[in-house]
Amino acid sequence: MLFKQIHLDGIKTGEISLAFRKWKKLSVNADSQVKTAIGVVQIGRVEKVELADITRKDANAAGYAQPEELRKLLDAIPEGDIYKIAVSYHAEDPRIALRGQVLLSDEAFELLTKQLARLDQYSKEGKWTINILTTIRDHPKLSAADIAAKTGREKQWLKLNIRKLKNLGLTISHDTGYTLSPLGALFLNRRQV
Predict the structure, then answer these.
(1) N or C: which end of the chain has fewer CB within 10 A?
(2) Shared-domain flag, residues 104 and 68
(3) Rounded to an integer, what distance in angstroms lies between the CA atom of residue 164 and that of residue 143?
(4) What is the DSSP letter of 53?
């Protein structure tokens, strides 16, 4: 579930407690959590609503001054059901502390090596993890499309799989492109690649 930065800021301060989405298929579950740029967002109650049922109070809780503004945005999406989703700030993103590590124990190195080997093993694309990490290292803040072109991968596949590296604390996403995290740099240095 994606949020605009302005809405994330409001969720973190508590000013925003609702989100509305129009989806063909429900994309979040109640009592789940979503990792975002501000940290972990808690998903509360999720209910299907009609466009006309969105009140001023609902719109304000979602960060909109008027319900018409929110309705217009939702109405512009041609297909799907409208969902009213309770949201709240839960915690800092645990990946931030992970990626900032400046020491890499033997055990942590072995665990990362095994995790990357597992990603390679179960990929229909074959081994990819070290190639993508070294490309990010050698070309910091290169866009996903350019990394895809350099590595012969499809852009959407690449973005999905870089997220797996990010979940391990090895990469950092920027407005444009990616860099290795301190942990990612330590890992590659230790592998001597």
Answers:
(1) C
(2) no
(3) 17
(4) G
Among 60, 92, 124, identify where a domain stops.
Answer: 92
pLDDT tens sequence across 35-68: 887 888 999 999 999 999 999 999 999 999 999 9
Range of the domain at 142: 95-191
Of 92, 111, 141, the residue that ends a domain is: 92
Structure tokens, 103: 């020491």
Burial of residue 182, with CB atoms counted within 10 A of its CB: 0-12 exposed, 13-18 middle, 19 or more buried: middle
Q: Dihedrals φ, ψ of 146, to 5°? A: -70, -40
If you search the block for the tokens 């590590």, which residue do you land on?
101
Which residue type is seen at 8?
L
**Per-residue confidence band for 104, with pLDDT thresholds at 50, 70 and 90:** confident
Same domain as 173, residue 130: yes
Same domain, 169 and 84: no
Rg, C-alpha atoms of the chain: 20
pTM: 0.58
Q: How confident is the model at residue 97 (pLDDT cuts 50, 70, 90)?
A: low
pLDDT classification of 148: cutoffs 50, 70, 90: very high
